[in-house]
Amino acid sequence: MSFHNPPADPLEYVAARYEGDAPSMVAAALKNGRTRLAVHPVVTARAQHDILYHEGLVRLLDPRGRVIPARFFVGSVEETALGRALDTAALRLGLAALRRYPTLVLSLNMSLRSMGDRHWRATLYAALDSAAIGHRLIFEVGTASSMTLPELLTDLMSVLRLRGVTFALDDFGTAPIDLPRLVASDFDLVKIHRQITAGITDAADQEVHTEVLIDIAEHLGMEVIAQGIETAEQARLLSRLGAQYLQGYSFGAPKLLSLGPPPSTCPV
């Protein structure tokens, strides 16, 4: 790929070069170990300096060590074998972080297809057998993914909850709610998507939509995380509507975990 007017941001230029062949970029990064874990805090709504947990986000690096924006490759690989390999890499990074930082509580967003993969499961069970980290691990499953293999999800929840693992439903509200399946899945947490919270302070219908989602979750005994919080006004409104937890750039951007000597506490 060539550019007559390349992007001003050098990283955007590098990423755009790979955009047409994202699978090769992902495969090369995985093969050469160019992966890192970034973390993004989820805070309590009433005391926003108190962190409930951090969401773990896998990051790929280019050959010069620069982070490649996820938007350039996720959509191209998430439903493929490379997507499962990327999820397994994220799992390994997350499990290593939990062993390294004894106070870290971490969530990882996984597709159900990846969670059903035998290599993914072997990686997880080996880690859970070797260290008592299950009670600090949360798996986030997207709404669309949760509807594809409901029996697998139910089986995984029943097994992993015995090891202390928690489950969150991601992207809540972005698709029609299948109430019987939602009841049967029995998630511990739901995360209301940023596209719903983005306009909540300006549009009454968005506020009503959000309040209905929170009411459904509370009725089912699921705690609510509102994503995409960028202003104090959003935070106040969502707290008033009943969201117990908040996540967004208002509380900090994702940060790469340190690779230095292991500290006794989480470095973020």
Structural features, described:
With 268 residues, the protein is an alpha/beta fold. It has a single domain, classed as TIM Barrel. The chain contains twelve helices and ten strands. It has an eight-stranded mixed β-barrel with strand order 1-2-4-5-6-7-8-9, surrounded by five helices. The model has no long low-confidence stretch (mean pLDDT 87).
In short:
By secondary structure, the protein is α/β, with parallel strands linked by helices. It has twelve helices and ten strands.
Give keywords.
268 residues; TIM Barrel; 8-stranded mixed β-barrel; 12 helices; 10 strands
Q: Give the % helix.
A: 40-55%
Task: Write down the oligomeric state.
Answer: single chain
**C-alpha Rg (nearest Å):** 19 Å
Distance between the termini: 38 Å
Write the layout of secondary structure elements.
Elements: H1 10-19, H2 22-31, E1 35-44, E2 51-61, E3 67-68, H3 74-77, H4 81-100, E4 106-109, H5 112-115, H6 118-130, E5 137-142, H7 143-146, H8 150-161, E6 166-172, H9 179-185, E7 189-192, H10 194-197, H11 204-219, E8 223-226, H12 232-241, E9 245-247, E10 255-256
Parallel strand pairs: 2-4, 4-5, 5-6, 6-7, 7-8, 8-9
Antiparallel strand pairs: 1-2, 1-9, 1-10, 2-3
